Amino acid sequence: MQTSQDARFYAYTSKFTPSFSSVGKDLVLQYSVKHTQKIDCGGGYVKVLPADVDQENFNGDSQYYIMFGPDICGTTTKKVHVIFNYNGERNKKREEQRRQGRDATQGRSAIDRTER
Predict the structure, then answer these.
(1) What residues are paired with 94 via a beta bridge?
(2) Contact between residue 78 and residue 99 where contact means Cβ atoms under 8 Å apart
(3) Domain ranges (residues) in the chain
(4) Do you find a cis peptide bond into 50, omega within 30 degrees of 0?
(5) Rounded distance between C-alpha atoms, residue 104 and residue 114, angstroms
(6) Cα 38 to Cα 35: distance, rounded to the nearest angstrom
(7) What angle (nearest 5°) sits at the alpha carbon of residue 113, between those of residues 17 and 35?
(8) Cα–Cα distance between 11 and 49 in angstroms, integer?
(9) What is the SS3 assignment for 98?
């Protein structure tokens, strides 16, 4: 997705066909992002949504199971968020990331390992 305006909410949804379950399996989410605009605050998140999500009315408040991606705010806040939403409770994990040039394409990976 390439965006054209700063400080605007963009969204794209797509259903997994067929749907999947990660019960008893490791789950790996990966994507790459390149922030070419000189934004002061923003991010680029991937969300794993319930199968019954209303794609036509999807917005920032729509239910999700996992939210994962970078958060940029000013010159000092550069974090990667990984948030698991389970039974209405958010289990949030934040990690500081290395500073990279804004024009660099950055690969992101989140791995949720099953207990063995």
Answers:
(1) 81
(2) yes
(3) 27-112
(4) no
(5) 32
(6) 8
(7) 65
(8) 13
(9) coil
Could you read off the pLDDT of 1-50 as tens digits, one per residue?
777 777 677 888 888 888 888 888 999 998 887 777 766 777 778 889 98
Coil, helix or strand for 93?
A: strand
CB 1, CB 13: distance < 8 Å: no
Residues forming beta bridges with residue 72, ordered by sequence position: 42, 78
Separation CA 101–CA 104 (nearest Å)? 5
DSSP string covering 62-82: S--SEEEEEEEETTTEEEEEE
The model scores a pTM over 0.85:
no
Cα 85 from Cα 66, distance rounded (Å): 6
Would you state the structure tokens that stand for residue 107, as one six-digit string?
A: 């690969």
DSSP structure string for 12-46: -----SS----TTS-EEEEEEE---S--SEEE--E
